[in-house]
Amino acid sequence: MRATRIVFCALFALGATVLSPSKASTASTAPMAPHAFTLTSSAFADGGLMPKVHECTSGGGQDPAKRNESPPLAWSGAPAAAKSYAIVMRDLDNADLIHWVIYDIPASTASLPQNVQHVHRPPVPAGSRQVYYRGSASLYGYQGPCSPSTVNTYEFVVHALDRASLTGLNSGSSTQTAARAITAASIGSARITGES
Q1: Could you tell me how far CA 58 lies from the centroid of its own chain?
Q2: Rounded CA gap, 60 and 150, in Å?
């Protein structure tokens, strides 16, 4: 009886050893999870200090380092179904004031250069459109940080959209209207923050 038990235990252990590589093989051939949707800038690290070149020129003072240039941004890992992109920038320490909205960025684009031109339809990226900023400056596109006495946190969010164009927006749309339209069409987003 004891010999039978030993043989049974030996066969059981052998079966476990044989099954084990099979399980490992199944695990290694399982599909890998997609990369996370991320947004980065070569100008500053997430949560880091934004260079002065990105600060507004309408807040007074004559600092030549301040040039109100939008920062370079790049994204990866976006949903495969994205048909276009949009970016919304907010001052998180000033009632989420919207400083920049750019949308209808083609799906083939994965970055913005520094200093996107201050016009409704900038030449780069081709096809994109920007909202008119009504505040300390009146211009299309990016309005940099304007907080001379405090350090505020500015959030940049890239949205992957389910449509190629937000046709309900035009050159007279407000930043709030545009942000709502972008949120409604968003199928995924990534963010980065900067201090200024």
Answers
A1: 27
A2: 15
Ordered per-residue pLDDT tens for the chain, 196 residues: 444 444 444 434 444 443 444 444 444 444 555 679 999 999 999 999 999 999 998 866 678 889 999 999 999 999 999 999 999 999 999 999 999 999 999 999 999 999 999 999 999 999 999 999 987 778 999 999 987 789 999 999 999 999 999 999 999 999 999 999 999 999 999 999 999 9
Quick count: other Cβ atoms within 10 Å of Cβ 27?
A: 8
Asked if 140 contacts 128 with a C-beta cutoff of 8 angstroms, the reply is: no
* Predicted TM-score of the model (pTM): 0.81
Do the strands 153-161 and 186-195 form a parallel or antiparallel pair, or are they unpaired? antiparallel
Helices assigned H by DSSP within the chain: 2-29, 175-185
Instruction: For residues 5 and 61, give the distance between their C-alpha atoms in angstroms, rounded to a whole number.
Output: 90
The label of the residue with tokens 């201050």 reads 118
- Contact present, 193 and 47 (Cβ < 8 Å): yes
Of the candidates 156, 102, 100, the one whose C-alpha atom is nearest the C-alpha of residue 133 is 100
126 burial via Cβ count (<10 Å: 0-12, 13-18, 19+): exposed
- Main-chain dihedrals φ then ψ at residue 67, nearest 5 degrees: -130, 5
Q: Which residues pair with 100 in a beta bridge?
A: 89
Taking the C-alpha atoms of residue 9 and residue 109, their distance in angstroms, rounded to an integer, is: 61
